[in-house]
Amino acid sequence: MTFDVEDYFQVSAMEPHVSRGQWRTMPCRVEANTDRLLAMLDAADVRATFFTLGWVAERYPALVRRIVAGGHELASHGYWHQRVTELTTAEFRDDVTRAKGVLEDVGGVSVQGYRAPSFSIGSGNLHALNTLRETGHRYSSSVYPVQHDHYGMPDAPREPFRPLGDDGVVELPLATVRLAGRNLPAAGGGYFRLLPYSVSRGALRRMNGHDRLPAIFYLHPWEIDPGQPRIPGVSLKTRFRHYVNLARTEERLRRLLRDFRWGPVSVVYGHALGRTADGAAASDLQTAGVPVQS
């Protein structure tokens, strides 16, 4: 179970309408929404991974400490929520180094994981994983093995893999199901909001049952916030993708937490990483991330 901790105005689709220079002037809702998620997870006795923006961590350090105090894994979503495809190697290094430093200073824990904004690591820029390794990251969860108009690497493995060899960073791809010769998304986000809950539940059960694979699910704090301010001037497609079914997401997430067993990335994928952040052996982790019922 993973969350990308960013505010509603920091979404990539909002970039043409809200510049980074305006972020400080926007009504922020990320702290309250993330606290709601933390309360839901605590009630369900679930621990998760929070891929958190460095910008958010600097402004809400107490929130980051609450994430850590709740037993959750703290990971990086970069500092500025910039697509990796839009950065030079030097700019990317600066961004991930800054984010990792802020998160570790505020959270008081080692940050091992990274998720690229908008899943913007793929076949054309896998060299970014070298930078992650050099800056002290152990894994990335940035590749989505699907065809999409803004991201995706449809030919990527659906299981953990090391694109740059045995010494490279482990890539943990987002959840997909294989049907009719193609990968279909099963990892949450907009698909979780826009499609009936049964579609997500069935896809995850297929991964666990038919494929015998755990699944990486993700959501954003703003996706449980139907009262968030509307950004003026956005396209019809963006309005549809961003705002539809916001009022239904919280209850759907509660159901999902009940229907499956969940854990943070470093635990569920301990077999791929070798050992988890707290030193647990991979052999202790093989039952994580499977459905509560068949």
Order of helices and strands: EHEHHEHEHEEEEHHEHHHH
- Average pLDDT works out at 91
- Please mark out the parts with pLDDT under 50 across 5 or more consecutive residues, or reply none: 275-294
For the terminal residues, how far apart are their CA atoms?
19 Å
**Major beta sheet summary:** 4 strands, parallel
Number of strands: 9
Helix content range: 25-40%
Can you offer a commentary on this structure?
The chain is of the alpha/beta class and 294 residues long. The protein is 35% helix and 10% strand. The chain contains 11 helices and 9 strands. It has helices spanning 30-44, 54-59, 61-69, 89-107, 128-134, 190-194, 197-209, 236-243, 246-259, 265-268, 270-273; strands spanning 2-5, 49-52, 73-76, 113-114, 139-140, 170-171, 176-179, 182-185, 218-219. Strands 3-2-1-9 form a 4-stranded parallel sheet. A hairpin with a 2-residue loop joins strand 7 and strand 8 (182-185). It is globular, with a radius of gyration of 18 Å. The two termini are 19 Å apart.
